[in-house]
Structure formats: C-alpha cells, structure tokens
Amino acid sequence: MGKLLVTGATGHLGRLTLQALLTQVPPHRLAGLARDPSRATDLAEQGVDIRKGDYFDHDSLVEAFDGVDRLLLVSAEALTDRDTQHANVITAAKQAGAQHVIFTAVQRREDSDARQIGVTDGDIFAENVLKNSGLTYTILRHPTFMEHLGVYIGADAYDKGVRVPEGDGTVAPATRHDLAAANVAVLTQDGHENTTYTLSGSEAASFRDIANALTEIHGSEVLYLPITAEEYTESQLAQGLPREVAEFLTSWATAITGGTFSENTGDLERLIGYRPTSYREFLAQNHPRLTQTETLDATKDLLEGEYVPSPDPMTREQVELYERTDGREGATMMGGPVVVVTMRGARSGKLRKVALMRIERDGVYAIGASAGGQARHPNWFHNLVAHPIVQLQDGPDRRLMTARVAEGPERESWLAYADGLYPFFADMRARAANDREVPLVLLEPAEG
C-alpha cells in the first residue's frame, strides 16, 4: 500500500491536514511535500516523511512522489503562475505512479461568468488537466476561509462599521480545521473517485448578517455600510496595499456580495460527519482577533521600543501567526517561504514588522523592494535606509542584521539567484521598470 502525500506541508491547510491524518493513519504511511523541509521538523519528528519539492520543478516532484498512492494537491497561491505549478504536480504524480489526486479549488457557480482575479481561470485549467490525466480524482471546492472574514470587514469594523461592496449575496464560510477534516476523509476513504464536492459551511451569511452578529457579540451596534467596489478598492489602497492586492480583495468581496458563494450543499458536513463550525460560533470565539489591533508578545524581540502593528490586516495577521508559532504557520507568501523583519519607522522610530520573501545564501538574506510592481518603493524600504539595524526572524531564530542596498554586479548576481527561486519576481520588477529600479536590500549579520 502506497503513501498518502500532502503538498504544502508548511502551509496552513497542508499542516492541519497532516496533523489530522496523524490521528488516524500510521505515520510511516504519511508524506508531506515542502520547498524547505526544515520548516516541517515538528511533523518529521512525529514520523511524517517530509520530502523536498517545488511546484515549479517537475523533476523534484517526480522524485518526491515516488511510492505515493494518493496525493492532496493544495492549490498554489493566487497571483502566481498557477497553471504551470498545477500541471507540474499532476503530470509528475502520473509519471511517479500515483493513482489518485485530490485538488483544492475555490467554490464557483457553473452558471456564472464571475471570476476571482488570479484564481478562477487557474482552477478551471487545473481541473481540466486533472480530468484528462488518466488519474482518478476528487475536486474539493472551498468557500471563503472563515479565518479570512476579518480581512474583508477590516480591522476597524467596531469603530467604522462593516464597509464592503454593496450586495446581499451570502457565503457559508468554513474553517481550515473543518476543511482539513474533509481532506482526511477523501484521502483515507474509498468512494470519492471522479467526484466534485462544494464544501460550503454550515450557515450562510451576508455581510449585513455578519455586522448583526458582531453587534450581538460586542454588545454595541456595528453598522453595515455598503459602498461601491471602487470605494472598497480605494480603502484597501489607503491601507498601503499594492493595487494588485487591493483589486484581488475587491474581486473576492464583490463575488461574495454578488452571490458567487451562495450555494450551500451540505457536502462538507456529510464528509466530516459532524456539523461544521458556523460563522456565529467562529465570531464569538475569535471576534477580538478579527476586529481589534493585535498586541504581540515582544519579549523575544532583540530591538527595543514600542511596536505599531501594520494597518493592513493580512500583514498583521501573518506576522502575528508567524511569530506566535515560530514560523511553523503563516510561513508562506505567493507559494514561497517568508521571513519576518522588524525595523524602526523612518520618522517615528517605532517598531514595525513585515513578512517578506525568503531569499538566503550563505547566511546573508536579500529582500526585494518590488511592492508588487507598484510605482513607488514600499514603506519598509525607507525604514531600512533610515535605520539599517533590523531584527530578522527565520523560523524560530531571531537575529540582528545590518541592511544595505546591493548595487552593480553584486545586485545582478542576487537578482539572478532570486529569479531562480521565484520566477514571478522578474515580472514584478518589469512592471515597476517604467517608474523605478527595484532596490535589492541585503541583510548581513550585525557586528557585535
């Protein structure tokens, strides 16, 4: 009997799936795929066979999938070359002798032309490749993650209301834990071959319903304030998000309010055998995290000073999760690993934190100030120029580093290395090229 392999072993969903599998399956039958196996040492210590592989490296996948019978393909990050990555995994699984591939897609309506930027078209492509591969398959279409509700409604919903694109569409979100349980069911049971499930949660809600639930939980009124899609995008840009990310979030929010996720199938409950967590239950347990500023435990910080969390809820949530778990969770961005850099604000001198792509060579780290291809340098770049002593956290390890801007042949050498790790980095630089040269900052161990 072959192994069960879960890709994305260091990501949220992949790690939760493996942890749940460990309660039902002997560890010698489990394998996990990771670009950086050192980030999954806790799973390896429990007996999971952690194998190195990269969605962009077909040969590495063929080797990693040797002896695997069933494989869970956790879909690649949005806004990356998902077609290449998904096709590589599926064809490598076929070549390595796997029998069954399970693919996590995003919920959609077959009768709708609505598209989520950077996701829907890639899902359709991957599903077609899988269906024509000769492998048996299961497609698991996910609703909005429950954990992402706070991203849509904003960190200041209690004070300023739930300001989202207008529309009364509903979504039945599901927690990652419940979706991981569905992954386990399909990986360990027969009878799911060549089937597509829509894993909607237990209770559908509009954003008006969410505002009403927060009112009940908080004890004071949380207003529902519908705005246009353009106003929503501008509100995201005002928080410092790159336009590409702001428009990405807008496409998801408008998909929710427009009814793209309104179908409630009951598939999730049937697969996992219990009633999934409802949005009301989740908000009651987690509403401070969703709508109030996080206060991180800075006792381990090597830089002293007042910490000011990012106004961007996604950045703030990822940093908090990464630091709280020593990099075991919140450890990826656009399909690649990240580090967390703590720095002083250029003008305020207060501590700021940001998660950035991990580019490391011989103990030196490089970070690219691409800002997603925007016309201006990201704020953190100005902070590093003004205050070059920073704290770098890579997994559980925190160290003081000195930042300097790479130039000339040194810069070109590092860019070539970075492009080999992240093909999309060159595209981001190209988008910014008409307005600026993207700086590459090197972080070297601080003296003393």
UniProtKB/TrEMBL annotation:
GO terms for molecular function: oxidoreductase activity. It comes from the Bacteria. SUPFAM superfamilies: NAD(P)-binding Rossmann-fold domains (SSF51735). InterPro entries: F420H2_quin_Rdtase, NAD(P)-bd_dom, NAD(P)-bd_dom_sf, NmrA-type_oxidoreductase, Split_barrel_FMN-bd. It holds the Pfam family F420H2_quin_red. Residues 8-189 form the NAD(P)-binding domain. PANTHER family: NMRA-LIKE DOMAIN-CONTAINING PROTEIN, QUINONE OXIDOREDUCTASE 2. This is Deazaflavin-dependent oxidoreductase, nitroreductase family. It comes from Lentzea waywayandensis.
